[in-house]
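Need tokens for this chain, all 281 residues.
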Amino acid sequence: MFRPRDSWDQRLLDAKLDVTPTPSSVRWVHDVFGNCVTVVEFSRRAKELRFESTIRLDHSTSAPVDFPIDEHAQNYPFSYDAEEMPDLLRSIERQYADRDYELYRWARRFVPSEGSVGTYELLARITHAIRDNFTYVSRAEMGVQGPLKTLELRSGSCRDFAILMMEAVRSLGLAARFVSGYLHLPTRPEQRYSGGGSTHAWVQVYIPGAGWMEFDPTNGIVGNQDLIRVAVARDPIQAVPIWGTWTGFPSASLGFTVEVQITCESTQGDRRKLRAVPELI
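Here are the structure tokens for all 281 residues:
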């Protein structure tokens, strides 16, 4: 999954995929979430497997204030419409056990004991709380760290923080899904991000009237600024950037490196032409 999703806020201008060794077959499919998946097969031995994806896209920055929320959902708690619920149920369903309600109690800290809270304000509070109170660490291990473990350690990778926020808002009855993509590292001295130079992960939450909105708890980003979507999924295992099987000798190395470079070619208002070169070896 290297090819970004085309949308109104990011328009794919050009995409090229170079694979070494030359595959015996290459085909593209759309998965159940509409993500573009490239399937390659090989028919000969090689000492190295390299995927180099070069992407050029037009990215338009949007802020939450650009998307008015339906009146009934402007404050939390609210209920989704009956017409939307059948399609949102699996995104509301919890994926990790919380038998002692630890995660639920943590999420409830951001909701007033009496009355309501603005929906954007609630989600922004959770986003910024993770950025401010947890320590980002790069983790090379496979899979994700469970949200309860992240709560205990107060540290994790971008995908761990995405899972923590996703499960937290689900515990409040909101629909959330996992996003895999790339993070543009700006040259602005006042803006420092964690998680650049590799693939990145964040969360989308469904808000009536505004739709699926972006929240990056690793960097406290509310909105899509500097975030390039590649894949969305109900569970992170469904949005792994690269996976497959191989046959080799027992002594063969499984060394693996990832590098993502993103440059901004021009800026006109809120629109940027970005060139992303994700390389996986």
